[in-house]
Here is the input.
Amino acid sequence: MLLLSATELLSTDVCADELRERLKDVNGVRTEVWVYNDIPAAIQEARRTGKPLFVTFRCVPCRDCAAFDADVANGNEQVRELAAKEFIAVRQVEMKGVDLTQFQFDYDLNWAAVFMNADGVVYARYGTQGAEGSDAWNSIEGLMTTMQRVLQMHHDYPANLAELADKRGEAVPQNDALQLPGLRNPEKYARETNRSNCIHCHNIHDAQHLQALRENRYSPEMLWKYPLPDLIGMKIDRRNGTQIVEVVPESPAALAGLAVGEEVVRMNGQRIASIADMQWVLHHLSGKATQVEVEGSQSGKKMLRLPDGWRVHDFSWRGSMWNAPPRLAVWLPELTGEALTSLGLPQGDGALEARWINQESEGGRQALRDGLREKDVVIGVSGLPVRVNSRQFNAYLKLNYKVGDELPLTILRQGQRMDLKLRLVE
Here is the structure.
């Protein structure tokens, strides 16, 4: 029970119930375990009890990670018992009002967790995603393993403060999402929260991209966020979270002498409890030639030398990619099956269909002015055949073009082949 007056408890419960109803949050019902969308109250209780905080972030309207969220919040008995007994657990369902200095993580995730002390020291992060999909990395077993590691860190605290100090990020200029200069339509988000105006985690990245664009410091390299340890040659057991199951030949990990079977204990001096912890370390390294220290449980400290461009990877799964410049403002899903076969394209070639052109967007209006029409089928981009899906096409666009460029497309319209050039204006 939180140490609040009866009046305060009633007011808190009523607000939580109203928000839960507006969001239709069917997984947010275990109020005996989870503090609902009230991090300050949870911190107060953590101070009183001496327990660590287990703060989960869930975008309720998003489909990705829905099954995992249901299991964590409302289904799995082991998580529920451990969370209730050993942690002050929080279910945060919007970014409005969240301290952006305290809670820094990969905002493109649809489910994420931050473990911390009541004094603000971060113990660990959990939650990983990649091009394989939202369900490829997270598991109850992996989460439970990280929770047990956090409890050991909490037991050892503050003697272990030196290996935790860098797990909290530096202070950010704007500490509240509503204050971000790059946040589109802030007046909409400032209204009472419902499913259509809750600030999603990826909106934070969206705002950062737009602000950087306005300040003339945007680079598409900003999209290579939170690199996986795979990129430096360490493939990690996704359920264990720290054990190396493969060392890629000739990779930085292999050249440094890391071994299959050992666990990653520290990276750049930071204690590691999960793959997300590794991503946090890698995220703060330059994409140019650099190095990172990895301490293995068997091989000890090894310095990995990373080559120029080591961060390059497929970021097409990221929600924040869609609002990064340039934006075509056209929905282009890929054609499959009979619809693709009927076009008579060479084996291996694909096609994207212009299903919807956003005429409320300047990018969509420009596409119309340049000749694109709904139901046009894109079969070529910059003179090359289409061999990517819709997400990968948009990733290609972000990496290879900028606002003001012309995008050459080859299309089929009612069986007739045409070439268009779409000017990218936003």
